[in-house]
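Supplementary Methods. Inverse-folding protocol.

Structures were first reduced to a discrete structure-token string of length 147. This string, shown here, constituted the complete conditioning input.
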């Protein structure tokens, strides 16, 4: 074997402090028993959210997330279909095999942390881009105009 050819995968770099803090926030908010469970949920939700956002909001959010979270977020190309918040939860549940209730909980736990990292101005722009039903997932009331 060549001396520069690894015989096994290189060990993963330890997660950055901001990412660990994000995972601990998700773990606390979601009442998950381990950081590994919080990371599993975070991975699923950020990947799914990455399929929904485009343009400046996608770039802006990726820049505010910890590097590891940003990689997850941009790992999937945006999809053309515009899912409402509830359809987003149902789609994620079908992809992960979770129940609607636990998936809704997972989404809220992760997107609450994302909202804090995004800040109010960027979050306003993100919510303006997404169809109805996402505000509540990010921990905000869903404001609708009277007819």
């Amino acid at each position: 074997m060549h001396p520069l050819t690894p015989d096994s995968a290189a060990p993963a770099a330890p997660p950055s402090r901001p990412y660990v803090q994000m995972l601990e926030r998700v773990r606390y908010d979601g009442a998950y028993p381990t950081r590994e469970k919080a990371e599993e949920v975070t991975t699923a939700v950020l990947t799914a959210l990455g399929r929904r956002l485009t343009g400046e909001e996608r770039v802006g959010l990726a820049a505010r997330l910890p590097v590891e979270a940003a990689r997850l977020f941009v790992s999937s190309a945006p999809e053309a279909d515009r899912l409402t918040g509830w359809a987003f939860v149902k789609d994620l549940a079908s992809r992960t095999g979770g129940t609607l209730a636990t998936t809704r909980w997972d989404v809220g736990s992760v997107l609450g942390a994302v909202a804090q990292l995004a800040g109010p101005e960027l979050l306003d722009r993100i919510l303006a881009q997404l169809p109805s039903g996402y505000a509540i997932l990010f921990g905000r009331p869903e404001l609708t105009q009277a007819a």
